[in-house]
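Here we describe the complex-level prediction in full. Unlike the single-chain runs in Section 2.1, the two entities below were treated as one system.
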Amino acid sequence: MQPEPAQTPDADLLRAIAQRDETALGSLYDRYRLILFGLLVRILGSREEAEDVLQEVFIQVWRRAADFDEQRGKAFTWLVTLARSRAIDRLRQLSARDRLATATAQEAPSEASDAAQDAYQAEQKEIVAAALAQLPEEQRQTLLLAYFEGLTQSEIATRLQAPLGTIKTRMRSGMIKLREFLGDRSASLRSI
Amino acid sequence: MNHEDYKALLPLQSLLALDGAEATALEQHLSTCADCRAELADWRETTEALAYAATPVEPSAGLRDRILAGVRADPVNLKAAKVVPISRPSARVQPAPASWWGLQAIAAAVIFMGLIAGLVILWRQNQRTQEDLAGLRQQLKQTSGQLDQKQKLLQLLTTPGARMSSLAGTKEAPAAHGMLALDSKSGHAMFMAQGLPPAPAGKAYQLWFIAGKRPPMPGRVFKTDAAGEAMMEEQLSADAMSAGTFAVTLEPQEGVQAPTGPMYLLSPAS
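The structure predicted for the assembly as a whole is:
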């Protein structure tokens, strides 16, 4: 299933989904399944768990598409926020021992296929990789631990054997730098 | 914490990295501060770009169909529970989350009025965002759905000739409880259950009508909601109406003609 060359904007898809248009939901799935599933597999360390959560995410999209407000941000951000928060919730429900097992034995993602992504997504991937590479290692590390392993700031402090205040500062600084490097896209979306 | 302190937490919140107490405090602040809500949305644009840093992975081929099937069957699509003849045990029931003892019905009505009042206050003060309002509307819809069912139940119970049977949990689910309210004239029945464990994938609970020594007659299949409750309506055949004993077993989700699975609820023999 290839995305059409002239794509319906994401926000339009969500509007259609809010009107109970199944085809639009299918299109949204086709467009973002690789990124979302890749994200979930990275967080959960299991294809099976990731498929469960991806299914839950799309049910949530079906139920809550009407809540999406274009003025507040991009549809992609809304979608990824939903997916990641469900994944982190599930991850935090697992016992500490399960989480350790997951972190140390991440399943190698099969069928990783950059080629199947559309040009826009591939470009975004490059931009984000470049931005991350420009962060000081200690800042980058805290962001990735929070984002992909769902650790809280105090859990990161414990993991890295660093004071909580130091971790907070690194994370804030990292986020500010990341936002600079990615460009301030959000400003254009707000109607100030 | 002052306002600047809350603002400083926003990028961490967008990462979901705040610990419990700080996260709760920030949530409370966000419910009253539109500026911070907007700024959090901005931070999320940055944070969620990190999704591109994960290696893309193709899910299994069947997942798309499973998702669409799940979406088609989602309770949010339905407007009202339908009444279906008992002869088709494969009919699926959409359970409504409901607590259904008399006093709780009154409590729900109070909550309903509270929600109405809450909505009025919100419109006047205009403090909440559209998102919060949509959430409240959703709760209102669910609650008024529950009230419809309670009204039906009340009507049923106050019909002359109506009878009730209570079902007790077996050793499979000692804490479970069920109730069947039946109007023997019309054959209209409502069944409610509490405390049942969630049915495993591919399975559902099925209601049975037992009259004397005859083999059990199949009723509808149902699943419980996240709170372990279920409520459904049935239209009984003349045979089923003569039943004095009722039971619930766990069966394949399409339902079966004769019970095969373990029994979870059983009424005392009449």
